[in-house]
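call fold(seq) -> tokens
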Amino acid sequence: MKKLKVTFNSPVVLIYALACTVATLIGLLTGGSGSTLLFSTYRAPMSDPLMYLRLFTHVLGHADLAHLVGNMAYILLLGPAIEEKYGARKLVLVMLATALITGIFHNLLFPHTILLGASGIAFAFILLTSFTQFREGELPLTVILVAVIFIGGQIWDGLTVKDHISNLSHIIGGLVGGGAGYLLNRKNITAQP
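ret:
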């Protein structure tokens, strides 16, 4: 009988999950001040160098452990398949683009609230995963259904539910993931002989 061994199968996703856990623990141990300083984004003076850093690091911090676990469930489930299909470098670029775009839009549209959490990344992964079976000249029904269910649901919730969930980051994350999925697959298809 062959012995089973644990493998480090998805370095980007595993390191990201670890970084989110550490950032969340820092936030919890500092009573939220660590999260506010480093792991959330909000409108700040352009002269504040941390404002630019936070446009990327807000996807690491979480309000509490339940928030972290909810996001990590999606990321750890979907991320390894995405990393295997597209590679570590492309996955990191999608994650950075999602963080930056959601951070900028949040700061412009909601200047008096803070944003933190990996849900934009999770929604990018959801839409990016739905493109894994994409072929030139076809639009898989799964892509349409995922977009309607997840993005449509976030638009509906944004209009009807008043809570502390950033539906905008979910929508933007989904759009970034869907756009990346389309572009990455179209590029791969056209590059083949």
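The two ends are 43 Å apart (CA to CA).
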